[in-house]
Specification:
With 119 residues, this protein is of the alpha+beta class. It has a single domain, classed as Rossmann fold (3-Layer(aba) Sandwich), CATH 3.40.50. The protein is built from 4 helices and 2 strands; from the N terminus they run ααβαβα. Strands 1-2 form a two-stranded parallel sheet. Helix 3 links the parallel strand 1 and strand 2.
Length: 119
């Protein structure tokens, strides 16, 4: 989370930690539980994951997490598509309707899902 912190206009390490703490609060789960974060899943469990599309914003402080997840999935033989959107911020697809990059990303994801589901 340090390598991109100067470029991330949305997140800070304390903010992300607070969100993670809130996510597990009251559940009894640890942040290292694979049901909380698939980065901690065993190789056996990772192999059973479905085909996955990862859309990663280039200026997101969580970029490394997405790239690590992609490598974990690839290493387990899971089909994974990774798009890194240079110059973009976390959840850049939220800008759909205002940014052509977002619209294009959503269109590519939708087409991929249609091919996977036969829709």
């Amino acid at each position: 989370m340090d390598s991109n912190k100067e470029h991330d206009l949305i997140n800070t390490a304390p903010f992300v930690k607070m969100l993670a703490d809130r996510y597990v609060e009251g559940s009894g789960a640890e942040k290292s539980d694979p049901l909380v974060s698939p980065l901690f899943a065993s190789n056996e469990d990772t192999r059973r994951m479905p085909p996955t599309w990862l859309s990663i914003a280039g200026c997101d402080m969580l970029r490394d997490h997405g790239e690590r997840m992609a490598e974990k999935l690839k290493g387990a033989g899971v089909e994974v598509v990774v798009e890194v959107h240079e110059g973009q911020q976390h959840v850049m697809e939220f800008m759909a309707g205002n940014a052509p990059e977002s619209k294009g990303s959503i269109e590519r994801i939708a087409e991929w899902v249609r091919r996977k589901t036969g829709q």
